[in-house]
Design a protein that fits this description.
Beta-Lactamase, about 280 residues, elongated, Arc Repressor Mutant, subunit A, about 20% strand, single chain, 3 domains
Length: about 280
């Protein structure tokens, strides 16, 4: 059974010597305080006479990997097979010991220095496993990313430059110059914290319908592209396919009309009729 990221609720790195949570990444709402779970697990690990790798509760499982300086804790909905989750957990532990082991040993109470390690965790367990054929579109009403610091911040800025609604995730991967696994993690961060939405790439068989959009946006489009904007908005009535409208504009360059249709979808003046 493959890994299902929708089942993941929480990942935490806990310093063994003092029991502090040095990095916490929530994936889903939980009825139990994750800090209480971390404290409970740490106590069990410290006082258990035999190694404990799984703690099963009625509503969730706690998977544990213990290293020299830190333990990695994964809270997940009950799953019949741990292996797809256990192997990434081991890789996370290996990386944290290698990259942060000395800092953890010299820990003086400041957990901020560990926030950048959220990216390696999200490479293994992204918030959302998006289809690479989807087109990410930037939003303006996102919420702050709690671990947007250092490398993560610079990588997100680089990705955001490509989220104009013109390229699929796969196309962005080809252009951005970052590893695919990292791009998937970064896309999942932007989606989790509501900085992007997804849409599928338009095809000639799609049906579009006019939507109310910002008057300022519409006026700028009319200024930039003229009466063709109003024609396209009135032509798409929720029944016509894109190919029908393209056929009625044979006197124009097809590429230019496609660009304008995509632009109108991007800014919210047109939308795809779902289930069409």
């Amino acid at each position: 059974m493959p890994l299902d990221v929708s089942k993941i609720r929480y990942v935490s790195l806990i310093r063994l010597e003092g029991g502090e949570s040095i990095l916490n990444i929530p994936y889903a709402e939980m009825t139990v305080d994750p800090d209480l779970i971390a404290g409970f697990v740490t106590a069990v690990i410290i006082f258990a006479k035999t190694p404990i790798r799984t703690i099963r509760k009625a509503a969730y499982d706690i998977l544990i990997e213990v290293g020299e300086t830190v333990l990695v804790l994964l809270v997940v909905d009950p799953v019949p097979d741990e292996a797809p989750y256990r192997e990434p957990l081991k890789r996370i532990l290996g990386r944290v010991e290698l990259e942060l082991g000395d800092k953890i040993k010299a820990f003086e109470g400041d957990i901020r220095r560990f926030r950048e390690f959220a990216l390696p965790i999200l490479e293994e367990f992204p918030f959302y496993d998006a289809d690479i054929n989807l087109v990410p579109m930037r939003r303006k009403d996102g919420i702050p990313v709690p671990f947007r610091v250092g490398t993560i911040d610079s990588r997100l800025e680089k990705l955001e430059a490509f989220t104009s609604g013109k390229r699929t995730i796969g196309e962005i991967m080809d252009l951005i110059g970052l590893p695919e696994v990292e791009v998937r993690a970064l896309v999942s961060i932007l989606y989790k914290y509501r900085w992007i939405d997804f849409r599928k790439r338009l095809t000639e068989s799609d049906r579009l319908v006019r939507r109310e959009c910002s008057r300022q946006v519409l006026q700028k489009l009319l200024l930039d592209y003229g009466d063709d904007v109003e024609y396209l908005l009135s032509a798409f009535d929720g029944m016509k396919q894109v190919r029908d409208v393209l056929g009625s504009l044979q006197q124009y360059d097809k590429g230019a009309i496609w660009f304008l249709i995509n632009k109108l979808v991007e800014v919210g003046c047109l939308s795809v009729v779902t289930g069409a």
